[in-house]
Specification:
The structure is a single chain. Helix content is 37%, strand content 21%. The protein contains 25 helices and 22 strands. α1 packs antiparallel against α2 and α17 crosses α18. β4 and β5 form a beta hairpin.
C-alpha cells in the first residue's frame, strides 16, 4: 500500500469506527457484529504500524471507544480501565507469548472466558459498596451505583474486608433473562435488544433503577484494580481472594506454556454454548503482578494481556417453508423453517424473517440455500441467500389471516402487516397470556395451560370473561380441585383492585409498555380521561413520542375498545388510581438518596418521602431539594455539596415529618 492509499483508507476506517463506537458504547444499538468491527480495527492498526506518521491522538486505536454520558455523574478512574488487544489466530497468540518472553523470564498465564457484557468498576470502603461506575473512555465513566446495587449476586457488604478495594468486572444478562426480556419487548411491539450485551448495557444505564432491577442483571469480576490493607502478588491469588469474599468470578485456569493456553482456549470455545452467559472470546493474562508492571502498557492496551476472539460460525442450509405466526396485537410474522443444522453448539431449524421488507431486500424464496448464523451467538438469523433453488418464486404474504381468514392490512409507514380482526383466535390466546401476566393484571394460577383449557371449553372469549367465571365452570377443568378453584377465583377477584396502569398495560396497546402505562396514568387519573385524550395532550407527556401517542388515540377510538372498557367496568374493575396524589410536608420537594442509612433501607426511606408528598430521583441536579446521605455516600454527595443542595441525615428526615 502506498502512502496516499493509506491516508485515504485510514481516514475512512477512523470515520466508520467512530460511528460504530458511538452506536456500541453510547447508544447500545450496534449495526455490525463484533467480529466485523474487530477486523476493521485490526486493518487500521496495520496501516498505522506501516505508516506511524498517520497515527492521530483521537484515532480509535489510541483510545477506548466509549464516552461518559450526560445522564449520570462523571467518575474519574484512578486506575485507567484499559481495553484489550485482540488476536484472531493461534499464531498471533504465540507472537504475544514471544513478545512477553522477550521482557520477562518464564511467565505463567491465567486463562479466563471473555464475558460479552459491560465493563464496570466497583469500590468498597471499609467493606461497604460505596461507588460503581462504567468504563466510559477508560479515564472517565458514569456513576451507576444505584443500578449496580440491584445485582443480587454482588455483595453490598464484605466480611473481613480490606480498608479499600476497587474491582473490575463485566455486567451481563443471562440467556434466560435475555429471552424473557426480548419476549416481552416483542409482545409489546417494542424494538428488542439484539443480543445480551446490548441488553445489559441498556439496562445498566437506566435512570430508573427499578427498571434495572427488573432486568435481572448479573456480574462476574475479573480483576483487582486497587487494594489497601492486603498484599496481592499474582492474578490467580487475587481471584482466589475475591472468591473468599463471596465476590462472583468467572472460571479460570493457570498454565506455564502457550500450547496449554491454546488448548484451554479451544476447550472454552467448544463448550461456550454450555454457559448461562454469552462469551465472545478468551483472555490470556500474565499471572505475576511484578512481571505485569515490567511489561507495562501501550496508549490503549496492557502488554501483559491478550484477548482471543472466536469467529462467528456461519453455515448454509435449505429454506423448506415459511410459517406465518400471528402475534398478540395481530402482527403477522414470517418464520423460516430450515433443514436442521448444528450451529454454535445447538441445532437450528427455524429463524424469524422479520417482515416482508426483510424478505424482499434479501430476495428470500422457499427452496433457496441460505447462510445463517447466531446473532451474538444466541438468536439464529438469515444473513443472505447463497443460491436460489430451481424454479423458485418470489414469496408473497397471505392476504388473509392464517388463523381466522380475515383480511390483513399494512398501515402507511409501518413494516408490519396485521390481521384486521380483533377477535382473531391467535390474538386471543396471546392477549390473554399477556393480560394475566405478572406486570399486567397479575392473576396467579392462570398460566397458559389453564387459559388454553378455558378457551377450548368456550368459557373465555375475551378478558372480560375471566371475571365472569364461576366455581362450577372452573371445577370442570382437568385436574382442578375445590381448593385450587377457590384460589383462582380469589386471585381473579383480587386483580379487580389493581392500579389503573396495570390494566392499561394489560390491554396490550401497540407500542405501550409498562413504563409508558405508568407515565400515562400519572398524567390522566381515570380511564375516561385517557379515552378522551388527544394525540397532542398525550405527546406532551415526557417520554412519549408521536408514534406512541397515535397508537393510544387509535386504540381508544375503536368501537371494540369502548365496548371492552364498558364491560370491564361492569364486572367491577377499578378504573381510577388506588390512591390520589398524597400531600404533606414534602409537597413539591425532590429527594436523592445515597449511601447506607443507619436503620432503614432506601426503599423504606423513599416510601416515607412519597407518603408525605415528595418524590425521589436517581440523580442530583439544581432542581434537587434534599440529598438524604448515609454511610459511604459517593459522588452524589460530592455533587450536592458543589451545587449547594441541602444534605440531610436519616434522623433529620424523621424530624422533618414530625
Amino acid at each position: 500500500m502506498i502512502l496516499l492509499e493509506a491516508i485515504s483508507r485510514a481516514e475512512q476506517l477512523r470515520k466508520e469506527l467512530k460511528y460504530h463506537n458511538d452506536l456500541y458504547y453510547n447508544k447500545d444499538n450496534p449495526e455490525i457484529d463484533d467480529f466485523t468491527y474487530d477486523k476493521m480495527m485490526r486493518e487500521l492498526e496495520d496501516i498505522e504500524a506501516q505508516f506511524p506518521e498517520l497515527i492521530t491522538p483521537d484515532s480509535p486505536t489510541q483510545k477506548v471507544g466509549g464516552n461518559a454520558g450526560e445522564k449520570f455523574s462523571p467518575v474519574t478512574h484512578e486506575v485507567r480501565m484499559e481495553s484489550l488487544h485482540d488476536s484472531f489466530s493461534f499464531d498471533e497468540l504465540r507472537d504475544f507469548d514471544r513478545k512477553v518472553r522477550e521482557v520477562v523470564d518464564n511467565p505463567s498465564y491465567v486463562v479466563e472466558p471473555k464475558i460479552d457484557g459491560l465493563s464496570v468498576s466497583v469500590e468498597y470502603r471499609n467493606g461497604v459498596l460505596s461507588r460503581a461506575s462504567t468504563r466510559g473512555d477508560g479515564t472517565t465513566g458514569e456513576d451507576v451505583t444505584d443500578n449496580i446495587l440491584t445485582i443480587k449476586s454482588l455483595p453490598h457488604r464484605l466480611k473481613n474486608a480490606p480498608a479499600f478495594l476497587e474491582i473490575r468486572g463485566e455486567v451481563y444478562m443471562s440467556f434466560e433473562s435475555f429471552f424473557e426480556l426480548t419476549k416481552k419487548q416483542e409482545e409489546n411491539e417494542e424494538k428488542p435488544f439484539k443480543n445480551p450485551r446490548n441488553a445489559a448495557a441498556g439496562s445498566l444505564r437506566q435512570k430508573d433503577s427499578r427498571i434495572t432491577a427488573a432486568r435481572k442483571l448479573d456480574i462476574l469480576v475479573f480483576n483487582i484494580q486497587q487494594i489497601e490493607g492486603k498484599e496481592i502478588l499474582s492474578h490467580k491469588e487475587s481471584l482466589d481472594y475475591l472468591r473468599s469474599l463471596n465476590i462472583p468470578t468467572a472460571f479460570y485456569s493457570k498454565y506455564d506454556n502457550i500450547d496449554d493456553v491454546i488448548a484451554e482456549i479451544e476447550r472454552i470455545g467448544d463448550t461456550r454454548g454450555d454457559n448461562a452467559f454469552a462469551i465472545d472470546g478468551a483472555v490470556v493474562k500474565v499471572d505475576n503482578l511484578a512481571m505485569r508492571a515490567e511489561l507495562g502498557s501501550t496508549a490503549k492496551f496492557p502488554r501483559w494481556a491478550e484477548a482471543y476472539k472466536y469467529p462467528p460460525e456461519e453455515k448454509e442450509t435449505k429454506l423448506i417453508s415459511v410459517e406465518i405466526n400471528v402475534g398478540r396485537t395481530g402482527v403477522l410474522t414470517p418464520v423460516g423453517i430450515f433443514e436442521p443444522v448444528l450451529l454454535a453448539g445447538t441445532t437450528v431449524s427455524r429463524a424469524t424473517l422479520h417482515n416482508i421488507d426483510f424478505i424482499r431486500e434479501k430476495d428470500i424464496r422457499v427452496g433457496d440455500t441460505v447462510v445463517i448464523r447466531k446473532a451474538g451467538e444466541i438468536i439464529p438469523e438469515v444473513l443472505s441467500v447463497s443460491r436460489h433453488g430451481e424454479n423458485t418464486e418470489e414469496f408473497n404474504f397471505p392476504k388473509l389471516c392464517p388463523s381466522c381468514q380475515s383480511p390483513v392490512s399494512r398501515e402507511e409507514g409501518e413494516a408490519a402487516i396485521r390481521c384486521t380482526n380483533t377477535d382473531c383466535p391467535a390474538q386471543l390466546m396471546r392477549h390473554l397470556i399477556h393480560f394475566v401476566s405478572r406486570d399486567a393484571m397479575d392473576i396467579e394460577g392462570l398460566g397458559p395451560a389453564v387459559l388454553e383449557q378455558l378457551v377450548d371449553a368456550g368459557l373465555v372469549k375475551s378478558p372480560v370473561d375471566l371475571y365472569r367465571l364461576t366455581f362450577d365452570e372452573i371445577i370442570t377443568l382437568d385436574k382442578k380441585k375445590d381448593k385450587s378453584a377457590e384460589n383462582l377465583l380469589a386471585a381473579i377477584e383480587k386483580s379487580k383492585s389493581n392500579e389503573l396502569y396495570r390494566l392499561v398495560f394489560a390491554l396490550g396497546i401497540p407500542h405501550i409498555g409498562l413504563k409508558a402505562a405508568q407515565l400515562l396514568c400519572q398524567r390522566f387519573l381515570t380511564i375516561d380521561e385517557i379515552m378522551k385524550a388527544d394525540v397532542e395532550s398525550i405527546s406532551s407527556i415526557e417520554g412519549f413520542g408521536e408514534i406512541m401517542a397515535q397508537s393510544l388515540a387509535r386504540y381508544f377510538a375503536l368501537e371494540s375498545t369502548v365496548e371492552l372498557i364498558a364491560q370491564l367496568k361492569s364486572v367491577g374493575l377499578k378504573m381510577t388510581p388506588s390512591e390520589q396524589k398524597k400531600s404533606g410536608v414534602f409537597d413539591g420537594k425532590t429527594f436523592v438518596l445515597t449511601g447506607t442509612l443507619p436503620t432503614m433501607s432506601r426503599k423504606e426511606a423513599s416510601k416515607i418521602i412519597e407518603d408525605n408528598g415528595g418524590k425521589t430521583s436517581s440523580s442530583v441536579s439544581k432542581k434537587t431539594d434534599f440529598v438524604l446521605a448515609g454511610e459511604a455516600a459517593g459522588s452524589k454527595l460530592t455533587k450536592a455539596q458543589s451545587l449547594g443542595v441541602a444534605v440531610i441525615s436519616e434522623e433529620e428526615l424523621l424530624n422533618m415529618i414530625q
